[in-house]
Amino acid sequence: MPRSSYSARSRDDNGPVFLVLVIAILISAALIVTQSGEARLRKSVQVQSDSIVSPLITLITRPIRASEGLFGSMSDRRRAYEENLVLRAELQQLREENSRLRVSQEEIARYEDMLSVTIETNVPLKRVAARTVNDLTGPFVRALLIDAGKDKGIKLGQAVMTSDGLVGHVILAGSNSSRILRLDDLNSRIPVINERAGSVAILAGDNSRKPKLIFSEIDADWQEGDIIVTSGDDGRLPRGLHIGTIDSVVNDEVRVSVSSFQKPLDWVWVAIFDPIAEPEAISETSLSENISEAELSTAPTHSDTTNNSDATNNDDDATLAIEGGTE
Q1: Cβ-count burial of 146 within 10 angstroms (0-12 exposed, 13-18 middle, 19+ buried)?
Q2: How many helical (H) and strand (E) elements, i.e. helices and strands, does the chain have?
Q3: Higher pLDDT pick, 254 / 317
């Protein structure tokens, strides 16, 4: 009896505890369910907010990015402008150097032509290169000035040439410059010869581009295309300097196309040629001395006189002996 009452009392005491335990389990389950629902809700809200905020951020940042691109483009343009200035300066410098190089190449080509040109003359010529300018203040219509004179051995009458042929001759030589009379000047007279026929004449300038031939032989043979060179008959220019070719033969008027006039005259060279000098004049005193020396060299000496007198005496003795024998 007592034991059964104790058991009933125990069951009555455990009832509230069991109830509390069940309630706690239910609350825990409810919390778990609530937290998982909140997580899903939070994730859903985050996704929706991202979908809404992302276009707004893109829209807001678009001007910022555009401004950044604008500033970047301006910086690149500034840098490109500065580089362009540097490149332009270098290009201008290269153009100037190219121009100087082109001028140097042209000068070298002219020098090569001058050094390699063949002159058909048996007279060795020393060449002095010089640069020409037009003589605008001189007394002649067609004359040149060159930047070479007596300091380089240039003298009156020497030939001035290019690689194409004769230009003229020196009419005045200064210390470091000279005046050149061109072949086409009115005052120019040069003896010439036809290489083909051997006909000779005087090439006379008349201030035209094509000088004419004068004082030609009556039976001279001139034909278009004949090569004309210096004859050297004046003794001042060597024979064989090329002048040009016969351009036309009309009514006994022969015109010559000068080869050196076919190109602009810039660089020329002067043929250092010394003509045959005239014999020196002999004074009366020198002539008397020469005659006295000639008489002394041909007069007999004392020994020759003695020998001659002995030979004469011997001849006389021989003659007397012959006469005595005959008698």
Answers
A1: buried
A2: 3, 12
A3: 254
111/136 same-domain check: no
Neighbours of 196 (CB within 10 A): 14
Task: Tell which of 238, 272, 306 closes a domain.
Answer: 272
Task: For residue range 40-89, list pLDDT tens digits in order.
Answer: 666 666 667 667 767 777 777 777 776 666 666 777 788 888 888 888 88
Identify the domain containing residue 20 by its residue range: 16-116
Number of domains observed in the structure of the chain: 2
Q: What is the pLDDT of residues 255-306, one digit of tens each?
A: 999 999 998 888 898 988 777 777 765 555 555 555 555 555 554 544 444 4
125 by Cβ neighbours in 10 Å (0-12 / 13-18 / 19+) ranks as middle
Q: What is the pLDDT of residues 110-130, one digit of tens each?
A: 666 666 555 555 555 678 889
Contact 171, 142 (CB under 8 A): no
Residue 246, CB-side half-sphere exposure with 13 Å CA sphere: 22
Are the C-beta atoms of 70 and 63 separated by less than 8 Å?
A: no
Angle value at C-alpha 222, between 221 and 226, nearest 5 degrees: 125
Cα separation, 172 vs 135, in Å, equals 12
Residue 242 counted as domain residue:
yes
Residue 223 sits at the vertex; the CA angle it makes with 220 and 229, to the nearest 5 degrees, is 75
51 and 152 belong to one structural domain: no
Query: How many whole angstroms separate alpha carbon 272 and alpha carbon 221?
Result: 32
| Shared-domain flag, residues 72 and 180 | no
